[in-house]
Amino acid sequence: MVGVCIVVLVHNIPYKYFRVFPVFLLPLSTLLLIFVMGMGLITGDRVNGAARWMTFFGIQFQPSELAKMAVIIVTAFILSKFQEEDNANPKAFKYIMWITGVVFILIAPIYCTATLSVTYILYRIFTLCQSQNVKIH
After folding, report:
1. pLDDT score of 128 more than 80
2. Cα 3 from Cα 101, distance rounded (Å)
3. Which residue, among 29, 78, 77, has the nearest Cα to 54 in the 3D structure?
4. How far apart are CA 33 and CA 49, in angstroms?
5. 97-101: long-range contacts (C-beta < 8 A, 24 or more apart)?
6. For residue 55, what is the enclosing H or E element?
7. Is the model more confident about 110 or about 16?
8. Mean pLDDT for the chain?
9. What is the DSSP letter of 47?
């Protein structure tokens, strides 16, 4: 029931307000991933060899979930900014690959489904580039 209320609330927010998310969401999620890895190394607080969870004011969450959402939102933002009349600018794919790669490197030791998610995103970008005859230098 809480999820339905959140969906209705978010659905009624004008989309122009979501344009600010990439500006702070990606750096925030990157810092949280680095923090979780650092705390796992310092305190030794690991489960099955990985530091995954973070407690913030008594609420536990996984920063990798926030990072995956950030990658999706930033990808949409980049594609919308670099959109040309016929197709997307090849520079957009370079930026997406760099951002996805950095987040993947931070997530990979933490959570294995993130590895699958990022691998799928990279696969789709490469297949899209091949189908559009885009060369990535």
Report:
1. no
2. 31
3. 29
4. 16
5. 97/122, 97/125, 97/136, 99/26, 99/71, 99/74, 99/75, 100/71, 100/75, 100/125
6. strand 54-56
7. 16
8. 78
9. B
Helix (H, G, I), strand (E, B) or coil at 43: helix
Is residue 136 pLDDT above 60, yes or no? no
Mind giving me the DSSP string for 83-124?
B-SSSB-HHHHHHHHHHHHHHHHHHTTT-HHHHHHHHHHHHH
Task: Round to the nearest angstrom and report the end-to-end CA distance of the chain.
Answer: 48
Nearest-5° Cα angle at 60, 19 to 20: 5
**Is the confidence at residue 6, as pLDDT, over 70?**
yes
The model carries a pTM of 0.67
- CA angle, 50 then 76 then 119, to 5°: 40
State phi, psi for 102 to the nearest 5 degrees. Answer: -65, -45
